[in-house]
Amino acid sequence: MIYFYIIAEPIAIFIRWLIEVLGNMQGGSAVLLGIIVGAMAAFDMGGPCNKVAYAFALACMETGNYAPMAANFVACCAPPLAVALAMLIAPKKFTDEDRSGIPGCFAGALCMITEFAIPYAAKNIKYIPCFMVGSAAGAVISYLWGITIRAPHGGVFVVFAMNKVLPFFITLLIAGAISAAL
Prior knowledge:
Elements (H helix, E strand, L loop, with lengths): L1 H22 L5 H15 L4 H15 L4 H23 L6 H4 L2 H10 L6 H6 L3 H19 L19 H17 L1
């Protein structure tokens, strides 16, 4: 009851304001928008910031703008991909238990489930800024390449809804590689 009557409305007002501000960005603002949305998606990996970025992408879909959803896909798929790549590239920096999660991280990246990266970020909080940088870079590249996705979720399994499949995968690999390198 407290949430519904006291907390929910201020949150809804903030989200509507954020959607309006982000929705009004055009042209050169695509870079700034990509940075903001990408960093938000990777900041808490499925938490409130991630959900606001996703809600923005959904609101844009409602208006016929499918670019924010593509940027959101890249930003959400990149953190688990980054963890998997980092463990393959530098296995000695991870425990055997950590490395046993490589298949799960790849699955999380394929399915757009950012939460697969949470156990690794919980072990080392310094991973979060790395995820944010890679996801922001991926979102920016997605905007600049004009990638769109006409599906609200589904990870890479909705390739039929992408306008530029190969650029999407290249962008995702770049975003994951940036985070893995960091």
